[in-house]
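In response to a reviewer's request, we include the raw inputs and outputs for one of the modeled complexes. The four entities were modeled together in a single run.
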Amino acid sequence: MGTPLPRDPIADAQRNWERHGWADVAAPMAAITAVMRTQQILLARIETALKPFGLTFARYELLALLSFARSGALPMNKASALLQVHPTSVTNAVDRLQEAGLVLRSPHPTDGRTTLIELTSEGRTLAKRATAVLNSEVFGQSGFEEQDVEQLIRILGNFRRNAGDFSG
Amino acid sequence: MGTPLPRDPIADAQRNWERHGWADVAAPMAAITAVMRTQQILLARIETALKPFGLTFARYELLALLSFARSGALPMNKASALLQVHPTSVTNAVDRLQEAGLVLRSPHPTDGRTTLIELTSEGRTLAKRATAVLNSEVFGQSGFEEQDVEQLIRILGNFRRNAGDFSG
DNA sequence: GCAATATACTAGGACATCCAAGGGTTTGGA
DNA sequence: TCCAAACCCTTGGATGTCCTAGTATATTGC
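The model returned the following structure tokens for the whole complex.
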């Protein structure tokens, strides 16, 4: 991006909200806007780290998920549910990973509707290498204080549970 | 989306990271993944609330920004900087808002390179109405505890400053 | 057993984001 | 003064996400 702004645009927005008589929702507005912007920054870092591997975050997530599955294979609908994205997004990611030889589609042994995504050995190797780079370049240098990481996990975990992501 | 999962997939991923010897970055990984997912949930809520107005979040943000500018007008590059998105994204948003009659482009009085985005009266009215709905349906029902909102603003504010968003 | 309903995946379309490149305008140093 | 460098916006291309609809397969109920 460009040079840093002289002032925090989200703090400015929060003040604008308060000034216009919406003080009761100004803080949640600021928090939500901050989540949006933080996601954008983190995604950019991740994509930069993955670029040398020809991977995007969406494709990496799918590879990583498969690499943790015992058999190295998952039904498309399972992957969609675990990654919490629309089934068409999985179709898209599998198409591209398959072109790159990192996964392949195989029919489900008993359910003719279902397609299994299988990791190839190339896919497994690339997932390992990409994870190592993400760990060292992104997760290992997140810029979050250690106790703030715990706070984020707790706060966002509660939010996601309330939003219906999981019941646990 | 579908039904809630029986377990938190991000907590599972964190356990997987720890199990594979990446315990030192497992927590930041979980926090970052949670930010990504939370953004997705929030964006979906916002888009749902804005749909009746024919607005997307990107277009709404631009309208709101203009409505807070004294003159109701801003240079494209200024909007790009304040919204922290790529200039081409602003071009895209302005194209669509202009088609809808909510903004218009006008030449900068002194700098021939610059284009000003101006809010029309329809645009100003729609921004007001959309903001009211967002306030009541999204920001007013964020699902975040009040003290967690403060924590988020603080933690993500620090992160954004460190990331170079602003210097203040 | 067969029709109605539910589930799984994919095709097509609308949007948004970024990057790379191109054309016009300003600015600044030789 | 004048040309190169910097800046501003737009176009074109690649990706990802979602929604709607369509096809194929399973399951359920009468």
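As requested, we also summarize the result in words. Chain B has seven helices and three strands. Residues 46 and 138 of chain B are 7 Å apart (CA to CA).
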